[in-house]
Each structure stands twice: as C-alpha cells, then as structure tokens.
Fold:
Amino acid sequence: MSADNAVNAGRPALDAGRTAADRKRGLRRLDLRLLGRAALLGGSGGRDGLPDAIEHLIKVHRGRHPAAGPEAIERLRRAYVLAESSHRGQTRKSGEPFITHPLAVTLILAELGAETTTLTASLLHDTVEDTEVTLDQVEQEFGKAVAYLVDGVTKLEKVDYGAAAEPETFRKMLVATGSDVRVMSIKLADRLHNMRTLGVMRPEKQARIAKVTRDVLIPLAERLGVQALKSELEDLVFAVLHPEEHARTRAMIEAHAAAPDPLAAVADSLRAVLREAGIGAEVAVRPRHAVSVHRLLLKRGGAQLGGCDFGRLLVRVGEDADCYAVLGELHTCFTPVIAEFKDFIAAPKFNLYQSLHTAVADEQGRIAEVLVRTHRMHRVAEAGVIALGDPHAGAEAAPPGDGDDSSAAGAEGGVRVDPTQPGWLARLLEWQRAAPDADTFWTALRDDLAQDREITVFTTQGGDASGTVRLPAGASCVDAAYAVHGGFGHACVGVRVNGRLAPLGTRLRDGDTLQLLMDESATSGPDRDWLEHAITPAARIAITRWLTQYPAATGQEQTGRSPAQRPVAAADSGPAPEPVAVTDVPDAAVRLARCCTPVPPDLVTGFVIRGGTVAVHRTECPTTARMTAAGREPVPVLWRDGSPAGGYRATVLAEALSRPRLLADLTEAIAAQDIGIVSAAVEPPQEHRVLHSYTVELPDPRALGALMRAMRSVPGVYDVYRARPAAAWADRDR
Structure:
C-alpha cells in the first residue's frame, strides 16, 4: 500500500462534499495526513534533528507557546521516539502504522493550546495499554505527572472486568480527571480521532461507538468547555446515526456556500461602525456546523432558513470593557432583538464560557446573531479546560498563547479558576463513590450527563445567605438536600422555597432561595416517595442504598420522625395492618402516595415503583400525568371495603383572613368531629390572609366532607379544600 493510500484509507465518508468553510476550519486533517505520510516513510532528517513526523507538531506547539524552550522540545522528541519504537509493527484497521493515531491525537491537543506535559502524555497514551512499556518506565523517563495522565486514560482489561470494563474504565478516568482535568482532555482528543477514522469499522460497531460518544463523551466535552472538539464530535456522530438527515443538512450548507453570504455584508457594516467609534476589534463570520444548522431547522419547525441563519458574527476585542462598548454600538446603530440578549461575561456558564450574545437587524432587515468576547475568552470558549493548562501550576502563570508554556489563568487578572470546584465534576465524583456496581454507575452517568441545562439555587440558613448550589434543571428539594448535605440529606424534614413552606418534591427554578430544615438529632432515613422526586444520581443512589439497608423503615414509627416534622402537603399515609387499596399485581405492596393523599372514593390509579411497590395516586395528580407521559404503565387499583385499623389520612387546607385565635378555633372544629390531627402548619400571613394545613386521620372517608364543612363554618375562613398534589402546589406557591 502506498503512503498516500494508507493514510487516506481510514477517512470517513463524511469528508465527501465538505464546504470551503469546512476545509478552512478543518486544516488539521490535512496536517494529519502529512504526519501519517511522514510516519509511514520514517526518517529523522527534520530541522534541529527532529524526526520528520513531529516537525509540524513542534511548529504548532511553538506557535501556541513561544516560550517553550529546548528542554520541552527534547521531551516531546523523546516521547515520540519511545512511542514510535514501542508501537512499531502495529497497524490500525485502516492499514496505517499505529503511531499515526497518537500523533494525530497530540496534534489536536497542540492546536488547542495544550502545554508540554499534556502533549507528552498524549504521545504515550496507548503505550502502557498496547505495548510492553510499563507505567514505571513512563514515570522514570518523563515524571509522575505524565505517568498519571497515561494511567488515567489506560483502559481496563476485558479479561479482568468482562462487560463492566467500559463503564469501569470511564469511572477510573473520571476519578483521575477529578485530580487532573488533562486526563479527560486526552480522552476527548483520542475519541475525536477515532471518530474521524470510524469508516473502516463494521456498521454495528460504528453505531455502538457513536452512541457512547453521543451519550457520554459529547456531554463531557460540553461540561469541560472544549467547544472545538464537541462541535466536530457532534457532526461525526450525526453522520453515523442519522445519515439521511445529515446528508440533507450538508446539502443545504453546500447550497448556501455556493451563493454570496449576506452575513459578510452585515460584517462589513459592523466593521465600519466599530472603526468610526474607535474600537479595535476583529469581526469574522463564524459558520454553523451541521448539527447546529439541524437544531435550528428543528427549532423553526422545518421552515426554510434564511441566508443569515447559516452562521453568526464573532467579534473579538482586547478587554472586557470593549465587549460592552461593542454591544453599545450594536444596539445603537442597528435594531436589537432584545429577546436574544444574554450576558455570559457577568454570569459565566458553568463550563467557564464567557461571551455577550445578541442579535441585530440591519437596514435591509437582515437579522444576524452576534457573539462578542475578548481574545482570552475566545481561547477558553474553544479549548475549555485545555486552555487552563496545568491545574497544579501556580496562579501567576499566564494562559497559553501569552508566552508561557506552563499553565493558564482561568480568569482575568491572573486569578485561577479551578473547573472542578465546586462544579458538576465534584458532584459526579461524590455520587460515583456510592454507586454499588458498574451498571448503576453507567446508567447514572448517562442520566447525569443527559441534563443539558443547570439552575442556580441560593441556600439560606435561618434567614442568612449561606451559599449557592448548581443543580440540573428539573431538580427537586430532595436533590438539593443531598447536593448540600451529602449523605446527611436523609435528615431533611422540610423546606422553605422563597420563604414559604413547600413539599420536598417541589421542582426548583433558577434563582430560587431555599432553606432546608434539618433534624440533626434524627436517626431517620428517606421515604420511598423521595425516589419519585429525585433526579440526580447523588440523591437516587443514596436513597436507594438506605432503603435497601432498611427496607422496613418506611413509616414514621420506624424513621423516628414525629408527625410535626413531616413536610407540609406531603403527609405520610403511614403503614396499616391491612392495605387500604388492592391491585392485581402479584405480591406487590400497596401504599398511598404522599403527594396527593388519596382517600376513598377518590378516582385513583397505580404505578409500580422501585422495589416492586405499587404507589397509588389520584387520577388528577400531576405525577400521574408525568409518569404516563414517560411511558410508565398504570396498573388498576381498587379501594378495599371496610376501614383499616389505622384509619384514612388526608391533607386539608384552609384559607382565611388572619385574626387572633384562628388556629385554636380551627383545631376545636376538627376535634369536634372526632377526627385526629396528625400534623398542622401555618404559613406566615400575606396581605392579612393566612393558609392553615392539617393532616388528619379519618375514621371513615365519608367523614371528610363533614370535616370540611365544619372548618368552613369557622369565622374568617373563606375556603377549605383537599391538598393539591405537590407539582400543583409548586406552581401555586410561585
């Protein structure tokens, strides 16, 4: 096989029909082919005595790190020599010498500005896994840091772990990433090159690798802020898993590229405006990649895209203040689309991303999206944690591209930002320790990474601000309890959301203020219903583990909580000697859901939850709609004739005008009906109105109507009703 043919053998079909913009953006592929040719032909006749195969790599590295001295270059040369000699004779599926793979991975990282240690480990990242080289040898030759990175990305053997090898390998890499994010940087670059050359694999293996890339690697690239790798990985996965849609999208991009780009005219106008204002800035048209165009098509409902929809304008300036100066000119000289404005400089994304986003219309009515950022912000936006360099270097080190080869400051003014504290990775490392097996970890990891949006919740303690916590969108107060208190989240007995008592199942929103009410003296644990509210792996794993260890402790007698400590509107139905309701599911325990406290003759339905228990909900409960929409099969439930020994429980709310002795009068009215009060709570008065909540135990469900009539007769009470389900309460409270 000739050198050119060997290098091109593994190129995916995606390369066909690339646009000029793609070719400009993807010059590194040409570079990799040149590297492959050099690796095939051998030789060491490069300048400075460097092997031909790494001459271009060194050039790129020096371009990003001008201060990289002879010692750094010699280190890379030695790493290449060891890698080439140890991989000699090995070939890839495409027929290329195996050394072309670590070379390609290292060049990807070099172009993103990775420092010498990362590049050294990248050249060696497959040696311990695929050759006779040992980790001790790597440490002796290149130091502990390089050995740590190589060990972090080395796969676990299937012969030792069987089917658990892949999830356990990812667990190992994530743990290593917790100490040094460069481990995951190398893994992402490794997966990108493998995806580029996936065309030589069998279709079923292509699909399997693409799905893992979609479910795990792409979300990790997003969370680590490595946008350059994420975008290309998305397009490559799109081509494998959805070839027809990918082909249609590519055809649209090609057709657009063949015509004059209207964004170029808007860019010229913007340059003129900024020049007249005396603002030094670079303005460029940034084409959308294939998946970005496809998402925009879906957002528009399949409507035809306009000429300005295939890209965005990117404005790069020197200082933060210049970003806002550019924004002022944009909104003064063009017509702003206010709904599109976002300030990620004042409030950076969780993955360190910073930019101003806006959209403007010019005199011809062309609407252009505009991104405004500094040159440093742009490096971090493209390379994410790779732009941070060595996480163990001092805070005084300058970022890549500023003349220092050792590290990068993650923020302006040389103040280093550690991407693992206190963000998503720290939370992931916390819950993964509790995952009992590989399957649980793998499922929880995918679920965690599938949360593509985060919210920020402000926590208080006794009314005083105490911090913030980031949670995935849709998280509940149960998730927050475990995020804030770890395993001690079991002791949460109630919450206040934005100053008001709320059920533990309340779904939190961005900017909510949360006060967790903890009982430090309790030896209690979570209720089974908590699993229905929790979406984060940290909470679900902790709750499941406790319920597995203490399967009988589901009622208040076992948990040690007094009735008054129960969350409002989440009353415990309590264990009864005989079930209140029955189902035809064999050997299934039946329990009444606390979110809607059903009692006969309510219309009810059931769902099998973890542990095989059937949870009974009122048909109008939002949980019923949510479970049905999620594909959960309802099971028929019937009320059993006769009253259980423990009675029926329900939660009743009374809205009234605030006055003295109201609580005493309501309590007396309930007691006069021979009905026991399990718990009671009163919310703080608002505009002279007050809400009382009572969880009561009824001797017969027919007593509920008489009770509510008696409560309505109390002076000042203007409405009495059953507790709405938790989700409805969350909306009402807001």
User: Anything to note?
Assistant: The CA atoms of residues 156 and 169 lie 6 Å apart. Confidence is low (pLDDT under 50) at residues 1-32, 395-417, 553-577, 725-734. DSSP finds 30 helices and 21 strands in the chain. The longest helix spans residues 203-223.
